[in-house]
C-alpha cells in the first residue's frame, strides 16, 4: 500500500540514496506523516521481533533501510526491495512511535500541525493525529483522529490517503494523550453521566433492532431507507489502546449512544406522523 507513487518517479533515481535511505524516504512527497526512527532502535533486533514473517526478503530490506545493502544488487531487485523496505520501515515506525522517544518526536509534529486540523467548526481547528483502524498491513488506510470530537477523518491529500494505517497503529493517538494529558482538548459544555438502566431500554433496543431489519429489507427491494435506520447503521469510532477501550471514553460513548437512541426514537415518531 506504500508502493512508490507515480508522482515520486522524478525523485526515484539511485542518486537519491546518497545520504541515507531513511532521509530519502522521509523527504519523498506523501511521507510527511512519518517521523525518523532512530537507527539504534532499528538495529536492535529485539524491537523487530516477528517482522521477518511480515516482509519478504526481510534481511535485504533491512540492509537497504540501514544503508548496508551490497552495491552488487541488480537494479531490478533493488526496485522490489524498495517496496519491501517501505513496508518494513512502516511496521517499525508503528512500534517506534509508541515508545517514549517516538512519542516525543510525534509530539513535535503534532504541535506543528503537520497532520492538519479538524474540519468541524465546533472543534475550533483542533490539530489531528494519525491513527490506523487496523494493526494488520494492507487492510485499512490511515485516518486522522480529533481529540475534541473523538472522531476520525480521511486525509485531504490522496498521497496521504494511500498510506497504510498499520504504519501508525490503533493505539498511538490515545497513548499520546495518556502520556501528555495536558494535550487533551476540553470538551464544549458539561458531559452528563450515562443514564441509569431503565425498564424501557430493552424496548428501545428491540425497536432499534427492528428498524435495522426493516431498513435492510427495504434496501433489498430497492426502496429508500428511513433517516432513523441510516442513523443507526452509522459506525462510531472507538478509541482503544492495545485493543482495550479507554474507561473514560467508554463511559462517554455509552452516554453518546444513549443520546443517539433518544434522537432515533424522536425521528421514528416524526416519520410515523408524516
From TrEMBL:
Compositional bias annotation for Basic and acidic residues: 200-215
Gene3D superfamilies: 2.20.25.20, protein kinase ck2 holoenzyme, chain C, domain 1 (1.10.1820.10)
InterPro entries, alphabetized: Casein_kin_II_reg-sub_N (IPR016149), Casein_kinase_II_beta-like (IPR035991), Casein_kinase_II_reg-sub (IPR000704)
Entry's Gene Ontology cellular component terms: cytoplasm; protein kinase CK2 complex; UTP-C complex
Region (Disordered): 192-222
Swiss-Prot/TrEMBL GO biological process terms: regulation of transcription by RNA polymerase III
A Pfam entry, by short name: CK_II_beta
SUPFAM superfamilies: Casein kinase II beta subunit
Molecular function terms, GO-annotated: protein kinase regulator activity
Domain of life according to the entry: Eukaryota
Subunit structure: Tetramer of two alpha and two beta subunits.
Summary of the function given for this chain in its UniProt record: Regulatory subunit of casein kinase II/CK2. As part of the kinase complex regulates the basal catalytic activity of the alpha subunit a constitutively active serine/threonine-protein kinase that phosphorylates a large number of substrates containing acidic residues C-terminal to the phosphorylated serine or threonine.
Family: Belongs to the casein kinase 2 subunit beta family.
Name of the molecule in the record: Casein kinase II subunit beta
Phylogenetic classification of the source organism: Eukaryota, Fungi, Dikarya, Basidiomycota, Agaricomycotina
Amino acid at each position: 500500500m506504500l508502493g512508490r507513487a507515480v508522482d515520486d518517479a522524478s525523485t526515484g533515481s539511485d542518486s537519491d540514496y546518497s545520504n541515507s535511505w531513511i532521509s530519502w524516504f522521509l523527504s519523498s512527497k506523501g511521507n510527511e506523516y512519518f517521523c525518523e526512527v532512530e537507527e539504534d532502535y532499528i538495529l536492535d533486533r529485539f524491537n523487530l521481533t516477528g517482522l521477518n514473517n511480515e516482509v519478504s526478503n526481510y534481511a535485504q530490506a533491512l540492509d537497504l533501510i540501514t544503508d548496508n545493502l551490497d552495491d552488487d544488487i541488480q537494479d531490478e531487485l533493488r526496485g522490489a526491495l524498495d517496496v519491501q523496505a517501505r513496508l518494513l520501515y512502516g511496521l517499525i515506525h508503528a512500534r517506534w512511535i509508541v515508545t517514549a522517544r517516538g512519542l516525543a518526536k510525534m509530539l513535535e509534529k503534532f504541535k506543528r500541525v503537520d497532520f492538519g486540523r479538524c474540519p468541524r467548526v465546533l472543534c475550533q481547528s483542533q490539530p489531528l493525529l494519525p491513527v490506523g483502524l487496523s494493526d494488520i498491513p494492507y487492510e485499512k488506510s490511515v485516518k486522522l483522529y480529533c481529540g475534541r470530537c473523538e472522531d476520525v477523518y480521511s486525509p485531504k491529500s490522496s498521497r496521504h490517503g494511500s498510506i497504510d494505517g498499520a504504519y501508525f497503529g490503533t493505539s498511538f493517538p490515545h497513548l499520546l494523550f495518556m502520556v501528555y494529558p495536558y494535550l487533551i482538548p476540553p470538551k464544549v459544555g458539561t458531559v452528563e453521566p450515562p443514564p441509569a438502566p431503565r425498564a424501557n431500554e430493552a424496548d428501545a433496543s428491540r425497536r432499534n433492532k427492528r428498524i435495522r431489519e426493516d431498513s435492510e429489507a427495504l434496501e433489498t427491494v430497492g426502496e429508500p431507507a428511513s433517516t432513523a435506520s441510516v442513523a443507526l447503521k452509522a459506525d462510531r469510532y472507538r478509541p482503544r489502546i492495545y485493543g482495550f477501550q479507554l474507561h473514560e471514553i467508554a463511559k462517554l460513548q455509552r452516554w453518546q449512544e444513549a443520546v443517539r437512541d433518544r434522537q432515533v426514537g424522536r425521528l421514528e415518531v416524526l416519520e410515523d406522523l408524516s
